[in-house]
Amino acid sequence: MNPFKSIVEVVRLPSKSPLTGMEISQRWLGWAQIARSRGGHLLADYAVEELTPEGVQASMLDSNVVIPPGVEQKIASILSKGQAKIKKVYLLIPDNVVKVVLLDNLQRLPHREAEVIKLIQWKLKKTLPFRIEEAFIGFQPMTSRDGSPKLLVAIVKRDVRAQFERLFEPWGAVPGVVIPSSFGLVNFCHWSIPRGHNDSSESMLVNFSEVYISMVIFRGTEIIFFRTKELGDGFSGKSILEIALRELNSSYIYYKERLGGNGLEMVYIGGISPRLAELKNQIRENFDLQVETINPWDAMKLDEGVSIDKGELQRLAATIGLLVRG
User: Fold this and answer.
1) pTM
2) How many CA atoms lie within 13 A of 17 on its CB side?
């Protein structure tokens, strides 16, 4: 046994290098550097960049993923402005390139990771638009309220993920952690919103990118629902916000009728879209629900010389959530 390995896995010494994270959305890039301090975390640097009108075409299939050269140029501009070479990047990719599934009603979970992967492959092999052997599979074991095991599973085609990772190769930066955008928002909420141990309140987290909308429903800290729906460019004269509200409504009905929902105590809204305030107002007008925008303003301090307004900072919540929980 190597004693140094076991010690390193348990004891992590503070690093002077800031953590670097980037969200790649279809129409926007969000970038943040977080420095550690004795008082917590500081926002050391950031950027929110709009992409060209065609943006990133994202899909679960690599043949449908199109990343224009302008995206690489934007990333180059961001990474080149720092004095220190960035070796590792924490990366958020669009929700609609990742298949997220909750597997419940499981009798038991295998003890070995390889056996869990085999179980997931067997359960989901007919639900994907590609062969599951071509995918990266990530999972997190969870426990339902009745004590039975369940799995939160995220699946992305290897070649799809590779197209996003290759954007950093010219800079020698390696994406050390790659997760869908909504997981960053979930991380931020768990980090910044304290919950009681026996909290059974039910809440929804909404991730709005204008191209897709994701909805995550919690019963206490347990995830009971996850759904991503692409919004397209509008149809039948309906706006993107109208389509988003329709998807929210159908998810809310499913939660009430199929999941025994007791009513949502709060709806938290986040995302890299600059139209979060519009969606918030629309939800308040159309649903009898309390709505709160996810904003790191009160949870994140600014490093010396950094200036940012609340609107831009709230669009970095997913990236910050990835870094502070990374």
Assistant:
1) 0.89
2) 12
